[in-house]
Design a protein that fits this description.
222 residues, mainly alpha, 59% helix, 0% strand
Amino acid sequence: METGTKVGGAGADIRLWIPAAGSALEERLRKAILNHTPVLYCTVEQLGARLQMLSQLMGSSAVARDMSARMLSLLSCSSARLQRNFDAFCSLVGSEAVAREALYTAPRLLTKHFARVVHQARLEFWQGQLGLPAAQVLAKFGTLILSSLPVVGPRWAWLRKHRPSEELIVNYCIMRDSACMKKCKVPLEGFAEFKAAWLASEEGRAACRHEGKWYTIISGSG
């Protein structure tokens, strides 16, 4: 059973463990406590341990505090979960240095567990499409790695078909079909047929080969 002073409880004092009074992290925590934010329903001791773990993983307590101030939900992850997610992310990108660069830019990625072959396949797909190294893809477009290629892949191919020489906002691909096409000013008409053809194509099959049962269902393959 957990013990210790609850951060959101009566008499809780974050000064017991916050390392820098008046810091951005302390201010975020004060507001969260006043608003009874669920991510802080843990003990002061646990929060301290999580911040310490994050400092160890990122190699700097200042970096850990800055990341936590920007993404308070990091502190809702247990120390074990932070370690597990960091290790999986390092395996995905190939080195701790690259992982730290991407995670500092996009702290939300550390709340996810990138341990599956499908994540590696998605990363490789977007690296090939965007011509960027892993760290930049994950830092700028990390949500794409969480999105199914049978869904976002056809949208991206459709956008490239209609606007081949223009710079596109890749993250629009995670929107619904209609919203994505509207934002990118391309027609929605004909996309359903194009999507089916793309999923059945050699490119689509290669991109989605690790997506599992859902790909089999929506593509009609198998």
